[in-house]
UniProtKB/TrEMBL annotation:
<dbReference type="InterPro" id="IPR050446">
    <property type="entry name" value="FAD-oxidoreductase/Apoptosis"/>
</dbReference>
<keyword id="KW-0285">Flavoprotein</keyword>
<keyword id="KW-0560">Oxidoreductase</keyword>
<dbReference type="InterPro" id="IPR036188">
    <property type="entry name" value="FAD/NAD-bd_sf"/>
</dbReference>
<dbReference type="Pfam" id="PF07992">
    <property type="entry name" value="Pyr_redox_2"/>
</dbReference>
<dbReference type="InterPro" id="IPR048618">
    <property type="entry name" value="MDHAR3-like_C"/>
</dbReference>
<comment type="similarity">
    <text>Belongs to the FAD-dependent oxidoreductase family.</text>
</comment>
<protein>
    <recommendedName>
        <fullName>monodehydroascorbate reductase (NADH)</fullName>
        <ecNumber>1.6.5.4</ecNumber>
    </recommendedName>
</protein>
<feature type="domain" description="Monodehydroascorbate reductase 3-like C-terminal">
    <location>
        <begin position="344"/>
        <end position="432"/>
    </location>
</feature>
<dbReference type="GO" id="GO:0016656">
    <property type="term" value="F:monodehydroascorbate reductase (NADH) activity"/>
</dbReference>
<keyword id="KW-0520">NAD</keyword>
<dbReference type="InterPro" id="IPR023753">
    <property type="entry name" value="FAD/NAD-binding_dom"/>
</dbReference>
<dbReference type="InterPro" id="IPR016156">
    <property type="entry name" value="FAD/NAD-linked_Rdtase_dimer_sf"/>
</dbReference>
<dbReference type="Pfam" id="PF21791">
    <property type="entry name" value="MDHAR3-like_C"/>
</dbReference>
<keyword id="KW-0274">FAD</keyword>
<feature type="domain" description="FAD/NAD(P)-binding">
    <location>
        <begin position="6"/>
        <end position="319"/>
    </location>
</feature>
<dbReference type="GO" id="GO:0005737">
    <property type="term" value="C:cytoplasm"/>
</dbReference>
Amino acid sequence: MTEKSFKYVIVGGGVAAGYAAREFAKQGVKPRELAIISKEAVAPYERPALSKAYLFPEGTARLPGFHVCVGSGGERLLPEWYPEKGISLILNTEIVKADLASKTLISAIGETFKYQILIIATGSSVIRLTDFGVQGADAKNIFYLREIDDADKLVEAIKAKKNGKAVVVGGGYIGLELSAALRINDIEVSMVYPEPWCMPRLFTAGLAAFYEAYYEKKGVKIIKGTVAVGFGTNDNGEVIDVKLKDGRIIEADIVVVGVGGRPLTGLFKGQVEEEKGGIKTDGFFRTSVPDVYAVGDVATFPLKLYNELRRVEHVDHSRKSAEQAVKAIFGGENGTPVDEYDYLPFFYSRSFDLSWQFYGDNAGESVLFGDSQPTSPTHKFGSYWIKDGKVVGAFLESGSPQENKAIEKVARVQPAVVGSLDELAALGLAFASKI
Ligand SMILES: Cc1cc2nc3c(=O)[nH]c(=O)nc-3n(C[C@H](O)[C@H](O)[C@H](O)COP(=O)(O)OP(=O)(O)OC[C@H]3O[C@@H](n4cnc5c(N)ncnc54)[C@H](O)[C@@H]3O)c2cc1C
């Protein structure tokens, strides 16, 4: 079997790898110095598109349309860009063994890759109901969504089950985006989740009340406070219904499960320090092992603004952490100083004609402001989170670019609240616009 050697290797070919590659090119990486090794069959792309326009019946997104770095308004790196820059893009190649001591990676078919500097960018994998032994969870037409192959299977099922019924298991942003996409395809959709409201990790009850009512208005049936405990199948092994813990049985031609992810760190277990489920790094994404960096979903890094270690599973961080690691690598080689990562958490989602942005930390008390009536024609509303008398987080639905910039600034500056929380709520966006 072959052995290939590179100065730099990125394992994983997702969002972080793509943004890292662009930064390597900017920093003047030389031909044949960098390799990206990816399990996927395609060059790095903007993963968030998979639960949005990729599933739309009209205005559908397809590659090469959404290769990185279009998601942040940057240049689109087509597959040919990599060889043009002398970067080896090694696709359809899963690394199954990593030995950090000997700086060696082994692929599923036994190829050996040697590196001097490694960037771990393996992202996350979805949590599967089969992991918990849920009865019938291996039935046909039960889908998960992480990679483009998963999205292609879902697209085929949507076509095959025209006007059919779908159950979406999970009430996070993936569940919300998928329910909307299925509904736009004229599928009858029920969403099932155990929590008292959707997106409980971020949404307050007040925010969630809008989205739940809006979804109901769009024809999505919401079933809360219970979980899927089994799936019925027909003679072909296809799912036909979802059994709920509360005894109800919901018919389904398609089931999509979005119950969370896990960082893919297994290859490096026992070889590198871990923290909070991820690979521990410093503010330059250096791990505990010399010459090994970790970026994107797998990194647990110092979030300077809050003075704590965190792992962030959002696309903005995957892009910025990748760029930071590459800058740090070149800074180290050239002796140019690089500032420590100083990240402001940012997360967004889009579904139907809705679009929200969130900046900062959803800690402490919260206030809801604006017009959050589900029947409102503008549905412009938001929330501030207040901790120790300061606004530390801000959420806005249907904001203009300027308004989104204003809430971003609020979360970064953390202004003190003068007056009562009711007064803050009454000021609403005007508070952010003044900062
Ligand atoms: C459907 C979907 C929608 C999303 N929407 C949003 C959104 O709206 N907003 C937002 O902020 N975030 C969103 N996210 C999250 C965001 O996409 C991730 O945080 C981001 O992709 C993480 O980047 P990454 O490079 O760390 O991992 P990934 O982009 O997941 O890339 C990891 C890559 O590594 C490869 N890999 C893994 N293991 C191996 C191995 N052993 N050998 C070789 N290759 C390997 C994988 O195949 C993959 O190509 C979404 C995620 C998904 C799945």
